[in-house]
């Protein structure tokens, strides 16, 4: 541990690891968490050592047998208490979430914390859902293996065991709740490893668990500034499952390393959403949906419709409509209720997004709007020149072969690509390695439903960017493995066991 780290351990804004219902300093010191909107210090997060991660895994392993034996009603009651406490303490959580993520205050207060409470309540109900499917009795003739008889069977869902939850930076506590709540509902215990950029609210969730009376060890949080803690979870033979949300590159590494111990995997990875606008599309609806790439958390969402594939007869009209939409979006101070577009999460990510924009222009794309750093509206003109801002960016004259049309940018960037017929639209939509969420805009819902079957993607929105919370969520191809959401989340965090007997 460096001298600087030793001093930071006593900083009043220093947070601690949550392991086995106790708070402990990070074995390797701390690291700073920076506000993306101001570049100021939010606090110091603990830098977990290898022994810290091992202690968290051991605590989860010790707790799992007892937690699995706890009645579904008791598990449900705990999850309900957690949901209530999250709601009661919104005034504590929202400022911290906003500061560490850089989300606008509107997103932080309406799309971050309330969704956490909703997910705990949903899986409080989920803990009470049936876990056994019975089969009709089946007459079986005698064999050298066993006597004949009327054979009965059931398929029961059992806990996987200890789950390592490695979460994303865009919606840190929401993403964690979407993993943690169904995992606990099914009798698993959890070691969470939040993204390095904004782990503080995830650590603070430990306070809620303590006050809710959660048994020691069922929920543990380890943090670090890199990937070592997550890699330790993946490598450990005492971790039975990894639930990961993040980049496809990291997902591939988890799949490879987790295979050594035959880890169960649930992975929601990258996306490159295509919004297909047929010639009869409602342009107003399409512009609003595509514009969500800019207007919702600065495009840092894996489901964003970042590729607008439009029938050539509507191409100029769509480009003009999107340009007008982007021009109306206030960019600036995320604490202002007027702001729609805040910063991206870090300087590194801002530079990455800018690199994609410059690369696209170099390949022949036309910059219609945006592409600049720290662009703000007049309302925010008095802000200091700080923060990791990228203006809403629209690129036209893009071809499917360009890098900007194929790789996930994860920022406020939309590209427009024309097509001449349905066949070409489907070909372009399916041409990337991703397959998470696509969209179809047309006046003919039956036509859209037929086309949806040809899209190699886990989700399709028809004339909307809205999602349904009970549907299975996940991706095709390089966009992931497995499904969560609704009751599918309960299935994801359980193993099926067949039980057979004769009467």
Automatic annotation (TrEMBL):
Belongs to the aldehyde dehydrogenase family. It catalyses: an aldehyde + NAD(+) + H2O = a carboxylate + NADH + 2 H(+). Residues 23-499 form the Aldehyde dehydrogenase domain. The keyword Heme does not apply. Keywords: Oxidoreductase. Its EC number is 1.2.1.3. GO terms for molecular function: aldehyde dehydrogenase (NAD+) activity. This is aldehyde dehydrogenase (NAD(+)). The lineage of its organism: Bacteria, Bacillati, Actinomycetota, Actinomycetes, Kitasatosporales. It comes from Streptacidiphilus fuscans. The keyword Nucleus does not apply. Gene3D superfamilies: Aldehyde Dehydrogenase, Chain A, domain 1, Aldehyde Dehydrogenase, Chain A, domain 2. It holds the Pfam family Aldedh.
């Amino acid at each position: 541990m460096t001298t600087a780290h030793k001093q930071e351990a006593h900083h009043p804004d220093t947070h601690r690891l949550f392991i086995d219902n106790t708070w402990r300093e990070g074995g390797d010191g701390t690291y700073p968490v920076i506000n993306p909107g101001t570049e100021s210090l939010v606090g110091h997060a603990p830098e977990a050592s290898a022994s810290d991660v091992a202690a968290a895994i051991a605590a989860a392993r010790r707790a799992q047998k007892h937690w699995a034996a706890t009645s579904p009603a008791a598990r449900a009651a705990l999850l309900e208490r957690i949901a209530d406490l999250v709601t009661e303490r919104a005034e504590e959580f929202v400022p911290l979430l906003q500061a560490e993520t850089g989300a606008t205050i509107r997103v932080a207060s309406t799309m971050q914390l309330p969704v956490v409470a909703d997910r705990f309540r949903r899986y409080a109900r989920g803990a009470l859902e049936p876990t056994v499917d019975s089969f009709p009795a089946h007459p079986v003739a005698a064999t050298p293996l066993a006597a004949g008889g009327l054979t009965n069977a059931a398929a029961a869902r059992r806990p996987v065991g200890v789950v390592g939850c490695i979460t994303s930076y865009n919606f840190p506590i929401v993403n964690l709740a979407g993993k943690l709540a169904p995992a606990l509902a099914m009798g698993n215990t959890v070691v969470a490893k939040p993204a390095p950029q904004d782990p503080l609210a995830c650590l603070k969730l430990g306070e809620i668990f303590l006050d809710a009376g959660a048994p020691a060890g069922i929920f543990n949080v380890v943090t670090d500034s890199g990937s070592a803690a997550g890699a330790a979870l993946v490598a450990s033979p005492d971790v039975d499952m990894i639930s990961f949300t993040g980049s496809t590159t990291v997902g591939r590494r988890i799949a490879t390393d987790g295979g050594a111990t035959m880890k169960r995997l649930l992975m929601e990875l990258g996306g490159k959403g295509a919004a297909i606008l047929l010639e009869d599309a409602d342009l107003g609806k399409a512009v609003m949906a595509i514009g969500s790439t800019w207007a919702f958390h600065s495009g840092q969402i894996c489901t964003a419709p970042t590729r607008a594939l439009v029938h050539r007869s509507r191409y100029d009209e769509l480009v003009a409509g999107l340009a007008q939409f982007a021009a109306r979006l206030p960019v600036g101070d995320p604490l202002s209720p007027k702001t729609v577009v805040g910063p991206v999460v870090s300087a590194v990510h801002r530079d990455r997004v800018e690199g994609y924009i410059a690369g696209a222009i170099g390949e022949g794309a036309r910059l219609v709007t945006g592409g600049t750093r720290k662009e703000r509206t007049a309302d925010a003109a008095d802000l200091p020149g700080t923060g990791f801002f990228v203006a809403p960016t629209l690129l036209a004259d893009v071809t499917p072969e360009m890098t900007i049309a194929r790789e996930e940018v994860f920022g406020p960037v939309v590209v427009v690509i024309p097509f001449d017929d349905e066949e070409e639209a489907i070909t372009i939509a399916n041409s990337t390695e991703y397959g998470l969420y696509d969209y179809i805009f047309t006046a003919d819902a039956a036509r859209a439903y037929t086309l949806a079957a040809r899209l190699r993607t886990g989700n399709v929105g028809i004339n909307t960017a809205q999602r349904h919370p009970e549907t299975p969520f996940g991706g095709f191809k390089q966009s992931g493995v497995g499904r969560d959401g609704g009751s599918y989340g309960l299935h994801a965090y359980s193993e099926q066991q067949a039980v057979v007997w004769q009467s």
